[in-house]
Amino acid sequence: MQQFDTVILGGGPGGLAAAYGLHAQKQRVAVVEKDLWGGTCPNRGCDPKKILMAAVEAQAHSEALQEHGLNGVPQIDWMALMAKKRAYTSMIPGGTESGLKAAGIAHFHGAAHFNADGTVQVGNTQLNATNVIIATGQTPRLPQIDGQEWLRTSTDFLDLDTLPEDVTFMGAGYVGVELATIANAAGRRVHLVHHSDRPLRAFDADLVHDLLDRLTAAGIDVRLDTDIVKVAPDGDQYQVTTKLGESWTTGLVFASAGRVPVDQGLGLDQVDVATTTHGITVNGHLQTTNPHIFAIGDVVDRPQPKLTPVASYEGQYLVTALTNPTAAPIHYPVIPSVVYGKSQLAQLGVTPTQAKQDPATYRVNDLDITHWYSYQRIEDPHARIKVVIERASGRIVGAAVLSMEAEQVINYLDFVIQQKLGPVAINQSILAYPTLASDLTYFN
Fold first, then answer.
1. Which residues have C-beta within 8 Å of that of residue 114, sequence separation ≥ 6?
2. DSSP code, position 163
């Protein structure tokens, strides 16, 4: 049996943040990873997706400027784009493991589970520790339908050698919308199917409606209130059937209706760790119902968005919590969420919906910014922002944005909100002009 101060299950961004931080505090740390070192984000998630999206964004800007200084829209070369993605992702597992070796952090590759005595078993190796951190993340959810075995996931999409001429996505959440946008930009026929009439429910309804209009205008077959009940092989393609009897033939069907926590097979019942269908239950110190076991990242049942920066933030928090017995409960700053694409949808802080429910405290500036210089310059086809302002202070406390530049705008507003900058402080800053940042003076 090998002895450590802390054993971490999961070698992704959250687990690694905790590992390096605790190691710097002179703890004996071990990290266990059953799959790819580095975790989902750099291997099969946000990083490779954003590499593919770079070509999509460049194409979008070119499309917008047709007859406004540019002629000819660049076409996406799928094989070349995938080669670029693979050149990046192929380096992640080895680079991550090399970093652990160089730091002198013990690490084990294999599936881990708890024994009844609280030790962690990895193959034939038994690890004992004062504390254990679970950072195992999530995995794509496969809907229970007839023909489930024929469904592919985002993992498959992000490593396709060839992209069929026709593809179908089941679920119009983050993953479905983003992957559908990439496939559409690559010139494929795309079906985006969602079980209800309200996809992306966490985002502002008006802006989601505007985004879906943009997707439809781009040629994506958006089908709301539609349940796919069967997928069956049809030659070298697949026949898709809905609950209402509609059907079509498609090259591949991707399950893009959310993800589920990786908390099965860990033996949590043996160590009295409580879970829900949404993940592991934790308190304000990210402590589970077993006082020596903690959980961070996407495997946790919590209201915060399940995003890579949140997992890293929680990992850093545990460095403090596990080395300082008087550490305060975790406090989250405002957290921006972005749906990437040709038109990006972003949101943070107090939402417009929340603001409307408390009009005495908040007001909402609903601004069509399509013809503001920053967006007119790039011929953004539709740009809109809803800014939530606290009446008493005049400070911006939330925003929802739809534009080709939403990811940048939301990050500027993140600093404004986090630093509690009021209109006077913003106006007293001299920002480079004309830029997206200089538009901050007009949002109040």
1. 120, 121, 132, 266, 267, 268, 270, 271
2. -
- For residue 229 the two structure tokens come to 């009940």
Report phi then psi at 391, rounded to 5.
Answer: -60, -45
**Predicted confidence (pLDDT) per residue in 85-132, tens digit:** 999 999 999 999 999 999 999 999 999 999 999 999 999 999 999 999
- DSSP notation for 8-33: EE--SHHHHHHHHHHHHTT--EEEEE
Does the pTM surpass 0.85? The reply is yes
Please answer whether residues 315 and 13 qualify as being in contact, where contact means their C-beta atoms are separated by less than 8 angstroms.
Answer: yes
Tell me, what DSSP letter sits at residue 287? B
Which residue ranges of the chain lie beneath pLDDT 50? none
Spatial distance between the Cα atoms of 281 and 300, rounded to a whole number of angstroms? 6
Residue type, 13: P
Tokens representing 223 are: 């089908």
**Tokens at 380, concatenated:** 């953004």
Matching residue, tokens 């949101």: 347
Per DSSP (E only), the strands in 172-329 are 189-193, 221-223, 228-234, 237-242, 247-250, 252-255, 259-261, 275-276, 279-280, 293-295
Note the pLDDT of residue 186. 98
Look-up: residue for tokens 């996407």? Answer: 298
Per-residue pLDDT tens digits for 306-324: 999 999 999 999 999 999 9
Tokens of 342: 């040709």
